[in-house]
Amino acid sequence: MLKIDGITKTFGKGTINEKIAINDLSLDMDRGEFITIIGNNGAGKSTLMNCISGVFPVDSGTILLDGEDLTRQPEYKRARHIGRVFQDPLKGTAFDMTIEENLSIAICKNRFHGLQPGISRKDREYFRERLALLEMGLENRMNQKAKLLSGGQRQALTLFMSIISEPKLLLLDEHTAALDPAAARKVLELTNLFTREKNLTTLMITHNMKAALENGTRTILMRDGQILMDVRGEERKNMTVETLIAKFEIDNDRMLLD
Amino acid sequence: MITFAAFIGSVELGMVYAILALGVFLSFRTLNTPDLTVDGSIVTGAAASAMICSLGGNPVLALAVSFVFGAMAGIITALLNTKLKIQPLLAGILVMLGAYSINLRIMGNKSNIALTKSDTIYKMTKEIFPGTYTSLVLGILIVAAVITLLFFFLKTRLGFALRATGDNEDMVRASGISSDQMKVFGLSLSNGLVGLAGGLLAQYQSYADIGMGVGMVVIGLASVIVGEAIFGTRSLIRRLIAVALGAILYRLAIAVALAAGMPANDLKLVSALIVTVALALGVMGENFSFTGKNSKNGKTGKPGKIRSRIQQKVGE
Fold first, then answer.
1. ipTM computed for the complex
2. How would you classify residue B261: left for phi > 0, otherwise alpha for psi between -120 and 50, otherwise beta?
3. Do both A103 and A40 map to the same domain?
4. Same domain (yes/no): A67, A9
């Protein structure tokens, strides 16, 4: 589904601050695979996602999604096939627009943006029905502005918006990191529900090693812009946080904290 | 206070400025950029309108051309911003400056055009419906039409995409929409309305002057801020009407000040002061009220303390 072939990304090339964020990285993902990504700060996790989603271009290498070459496409064109949830809950919604208006923008991702009514009655019914799945009562608040929602509600809404148009690839960049534990658990629960239901090909960055091993179908560990470890199946099932730490000399408190 | 005739005159002029204010609303609120192109594009609209009328052309056609010429100025500003990565404020200043020369050319290298002997949309309606309130009713009808069209437009898919661009560009791009295209489109529509206001202004006062654009963006901003503060922002339609009423209120305030003996030469200074006060009050409004537009969630400032605390409670 996703085929990344030897991509490299260097920031500040030719300056004293030159940093190779992604170093000749290759990754193959099958349809329906759910990869969790862990790694230290500066390992290149977020950069990898930004390269895939086109926030900035890569220096070399190619990125193919379902056979389509994304490498030179602008961010907004790639977004038609990619759902994204950012770490910052404020980044995912238009705060001064209502919940249903936000959802409408999300569902119209692959539709033509013309002078049709922004929300059709059919869409509204669908939103109401699906929002109930979040169990947050949002289905009765569809006319309220997104800025009135709490961080957890916003992130749940953003997650829902990112999958509503059934993207080929879902990118989650520490999407639970800014939430309180209860809200984080809820959003992670919803993530598993949605990805399983639609069999979505998913990449999720997390700083929590336990969560990385417990969720998804495959785990990769990044360091210095490269993939240090890539486990799935039996090997992954038998892996514990302790063996991970021992094997890779992880000394990052943040990754150890629950 | 002012005489009844002066009152009616101010409201008539206010209707013209209401269209300017709605144009400024689009850039300042919907796209979240104060757009200085306005000072140039309003003269472009006025120049085109006056030139066509003075040559004996149809005044309604003249207004259509005003809209298109204004829109073109907006497109140039947006392209400078999106393609050449020039800051929006600077891009607006550059186009405003360049437009001065273009406007002079449109006006046939004269610094003003008088329309005393030419047909205008106001004179035309007066011929058909003679009366004291003809110009006023015409103004109200035009503003009502613009508000209605704008309201329905902002409720379409394209309108949603435009509004979201000012709110959150990351979200817009992540939703498969080119935020650059939205800026070009939004600024062209905004300046199109400004151009239309310029065209109407030239026909209303029966002249166009190369210097008439100075401070127009400030008047537009004042109308938006004052209107929203006084008449509320609870729903989109209310907000659009509030902006239009803000423009009328602004003209009335000026008329009262002039009647009270303020020298006309001090007008610009007073305009600047009004906007300064309105902006300062706007900041306070975010702290103390539910109305006023929320701040940009840390993008351009922090939401007021009291306000964000209330919001958290509501959110939970």
1. 0.89
2. left
3. no
4. yes
